[in-house]
Amino acid sequence: MSGETWSPRKWTMHSMSTEPLSRSNQIVELSLADVLITVQKADLPERRRQEIASALRTVGRALGKDLGRIPADPRRLAPILKDVSPLAIGISQPRWNNIRSLVRSGLSMVRPVSPGRHLNKLSANWQSLWVKLPSMRLRRALSRFLRFCSASRIEPEAVTEREFTAYQYYLTDSLLKRQAKLFRATGR
Predict the structure, then answer these.
(1) DSSP per-residue letters across 90-141
(2) What does the pLDDT profile of the chain (188 residues) look like in tens digits?
């Protein structure tokens, strides 16, 4: 599949023929079935491959759909998974959280996915502000945004509405359960 280019939501395939570009473009929506195939072929330890494959199949059963009919798009998948009641399908909440994390790992093999959390260190300027926050509650509420800014090399004095918009977009590209609530808390 030479000539593949990435767009945020879809793979665009360009054939190498001399046909006009408009005729040679094919849009291929990735599905969880594509993710499963990629996982099964991946150079991963066998156990990790099995865990991710099992998580993908569990999502299919939870949604009552074939994996080929479930989009491999975090923006579309997150709200669908948020509505699943794990207890109703015989899964504990911690196990469901683990399944969502494993699905995120599988998705990251076929497309860029925002991490569930940043583990990067804060820049010196963000660190000095973070330690001045009066409570652990505020530190937890702002931690993801501060790490997002640090990873993006955005210093505190450079934060504008544009950076908040980028952060909101970043959150929607993840499988986090409460994206909107998290964004509102950060804004407050």
Answers:
(1) T--HHHHHHHHHHHHHHHTTTS----SS--SPPPHHHHHHHHH-S-HHHHHH
(2) 334 333 333 333 333 333 444 444 444 578 899 999 999 999 999 999 999 999 999 999 999 999 999 988 877 787 788 888 898 889 998 999 899 889 988 888 887 555 445 556 788 888 888 888 888 877 777 777 887 788 778 888 888 888 877 777 776 655 555 666 666 666 66
**142 close to 67: Cβ distance less than 8 angstroms:** no
Among 86, 76, 11, smallest CA distance to 55 is for 86
Q: The pTM is what?
A: 0.52
